[in-house]
Amino acid sequence: MSNELEAISDPGLPAHVHRKADHDPIAEKKAERQVAILFLLSAAGTILFIYSYIWISQDLFIYLPVLGTTNAKQLFLGLGLATSLFFIGAGAIHWAKTLMPDEEVIAMRHEMRSDDEDRAALVKSAKEGAAAAGLGRRSLIKRTMGLSLGLIGLSPLLLLRDLGPLPAKEFDTTSWEKGTRLVTDPGNRPIKPSDLEVGAVAQVLPQLRAGEERTLNNIGKDAVLLIRLRPEEFQLTPEKLAMTHEGIIAFSKICSHMGCAIALYEQQTKHLLCPCHQSTFDVPRGAKVIFGPAARPLPQLGISVDSEGYLVAQNPFSEPVGPSFWERNTK
Amino acid sequence: MSARERIAGTVAGYVDDRTGAAKWMKKNLNKVFPDHWSFLLGEIALYSFIILLLSGTFLTFWFVPSQHEVIYNGSYQPLSGLSMSEAYQSTLHISFDIRGGLLMRQIHHWAALLFMVAIVVHLLRVYFTGAFRKPREFNWIIGVGLLTLGIVEGFLGYSLPDDLLSGTGIRIAEAIIQALPVVGSYISYFAFGGAFPGDAFIPRIYTVHVLLLPGIFLALITVHLMLVWYQKHTQYPGPGRTEKNVVGYPLLPVYMAKAGGFFFIVFGVIAFLSAVASINPIWLYGPYTPGQISAGSQPDWYMGWLDGLVRMSPPLETHAFGHTISWNILIPGLIVPGIMFTGLALYPFIESWISGDKREHHILDRPRNVPNRTALGAMALTFTIVGLLNGGNDIISTTFHLTINQMMWFSRIGILVLPPIAFVITKRLCLSLQRADRDLVLHGRETGTLVRMPSGEFVEVHEPISAEKAWVLTQHEQPKPLELSDTDARGVKRPGAIKNKLRNRMSRANAVAVPKVSAQDLKEIEHH
């Protein structure tokens, strides 16, 4: 003890106080009955479970206060199971607390450490074992074994190689090409500028070529948002302005932060908000980041109309869409 | 001897002839376990794990871990005709067509949430009472491992149904992988078998979720419990309880009945929650497609603080030499949690290094008697809670009519300012509580009886506290600062001088305390 002052002394384990059921046969009988009732309640729960499983219809919905409209089968199956389990536990614990001996007992601890003799004996036999194997002397064996053990780890590592292809340049490209028509999602209908009123938003995808099928992988890179403003509302560089068409501006819908779909457009402020991490992009200024963790504006897709008046992409995206990665050459 | 006894004896004899188990059993059936409600927290975690194994096995009978796209025409009409993965379709099938299927899904999810709650609260109990001290450091590290794996296992589990919410979670996880410098794109392509989302991820994480991680869990939990068994449980300070003994109930019958009964209680409560409280209603979210999202996307709570850190991160990216480094993802998503978990795992060693205390400890600390540890814990907890709050910043903003920007700025500033404040307040509180203990031992408890003295003065009558209570309040040690000198006997600077200075300073801070009452103090006051 680090205190020089004398500490208050330990009064020792207090005397055991007996419970009523320990000496009163009536209380004991009562406790026994209580335990039995708890076990019977559990049995009733199992019966409720069996009844609900077999006889309550799957489509029966009932209204209960607080819970609202609930599927009766699911509810009573659950309540039956809960009752059957809970009261087994309650019965066992009540039994332990009222009828089993409740006198605390003392056991002694021993230090974890082995005694010095055992330790010395261990060191001795370990050394003898090592000497018998000749580990110290046979350095050729030791080194070659080290080499082989070191190398064997490579095989399972190499086996993981075929988990996937190398990324190549796939992060950089999307399905958008010069002249690809913008089609609605869902619906796959090409759209004209007149389909969008000022203030409107639409999600579009590139039109499929004959025989092509749309995969989730494509949607994950190709999804684009169209937003129509009044042309005078834009505050863009001339090049970016040239990528808009009659006030319609197109951005990648995939967040430049962590790739969530950006779906919240606030018409009054003209902000796009990502619901995952709340990065906020200002549409009139080319989806410039004005709040949140995203570090880059959303890539803009240049659009115009084709000879039939349908909206098409001017060019592919000029930068990779979606979240950053090591090889991304951000300018 | 009754017939029943004879049969039991024969069976037991048969087993013992072949295993010699009787010797071990004889010793351990009477093993003593101390009783305290806070010792149930680890039990809740263990029982939740067993419930997870049972309910999870049931779910695997119908769940189809495949991202193969199918057109739905099952019994849930609102999604009829939609394209979805077989994983999502089979989850709908379990929810709507298998009797008790939805109940089992909800039991599995509620048990997972409770599992993580129990682990975290158990960890806090162990931390604040100093139960991690020698000889229990290994078990602390295993516990930190279980916590970390639990977070991963939970995340993979709720990702399996391939609904819009969980798919968005996977998308974010992919972005974190992709953000790793140099190797990110490669690891992402290996994990997903190509570009995101591909069709390999769900089957792969299924194997990890139902086989690999549960196997590791079983192994770690077994070692965790064996160590508890072998090292014997810690106990709270109390009369008759010493570092050399353990006071409690014998395994047979009391502890076994209580612990076994408690398993059924935990299972019953989870079943009740699952009966009345809907969780993860994936049919409302719809199947995953990367082009869509629902507002208010939230991870499960144990991931929430990480998501909150990512949300509050400033928009930092480095663009140089044709490469991009996303600090806005790496710092909150990997570096900060990495530091936190490493610090957590190493804490027992750091503390014993500072205190120089290499002895075994089996009597738990009262948190107030170790102000710096308690304050450090409060600080880490505050950090995590600010992160967790910001993980729900959208929900909190709409509920309390705040702007998202206010919430975000509160968190950005709060995460730096509030933890140190929590440290200072907690430390002061601990010292105040020590002072209150001292007063209680010296002057007794307030009885509420007021007495008017002949002089007209009113005084409250104090009553001395019991010897047992006085012992609990004064049994702890009050460490003295280390006095490591930075020069040796000849006045030459030692090589570890700076290290020693640091240890001295920290142990001085640890030694700040209100002096506990000694026997002399009590004698003196009796004479007055």
By DSSP (H or I, 4+ residues per run), the number of helices of chain B equals: 19
Secondary-structure element order of chain B, N to C = HHEHEEHHHHHHEHHHEEHHHHEEHHH
Q: Sketch the topology of chain A as an H/E string, one letter per element.
A: HHEEHEHHHEEHEHEEEEEEEE
How many DSSP E strands of chain B? 8
Strands of chain A, count: 14
* Structural class label of chain B: mainly alpha
List the strand order in the largest sheet of chain A.
4-5-6-7-12
Q: Helical proportion of chain A?
A: 25-40%
Helix/strand-derived class of chain A?
alpha+beta
Mean pLDDT score of chain A: 91
Span from first to last CA of chain B? 68 Å
Measured distance between first and last alpha carbons of chain A: 66 Å
Structure description:
- The complex is a heterodimer of chains A (331) and B (528).
- Helices cover 34% and strands 16% of the residues of chain A.
- By secondary structure, chain A is α+β, with helices and mostly antiparallel strands.
- In chain A, the strands form four sheets. In chain A, strands 4-5-6-7-12 form a five-stranded antiparallel β-sheet. A four-stranded antiparallel β-sheet of chain A has the order 8-9-10-11, with no helix packed on it.
- In chain A, strand 8 (264-266) and strand 9 (271-273) form a beta hairpin.
- Chain A is extended.
- The model of chain A has no long low-confidence stretch (mean pLDDT 91).
- Chain B is mainly alpha-helical.
- Among the domains of chain B are: 40-238 and 247-288, Cytochrome Bc1 Complex, Chain C, CATH 1.20.810; 426-527, no CATH class.
- Chain B has 19 helices and eight strands.
- Chain B has helices at residues 3-19, 21-28, 40-60, 86-96, 101-128, 137-159, 164-178, 184-192, 201-231, 251-276, 282-285, 301-312, 327-355, 371-391, 393-399, 404-443, 467-474, 497-510, 519-527, and strands at 32-33, 69-71, 83-85, 245-250, 317-320, 323-326, 445-452, 458-463.
- Classes of the chains: A alpha+beta (331), B mainly alpha (528).
- Chains A and B meet through helix 3, strand 3 and helix 7 of A and helix 5, helix 7, helix 8, strand 4 and helix 10 of B.
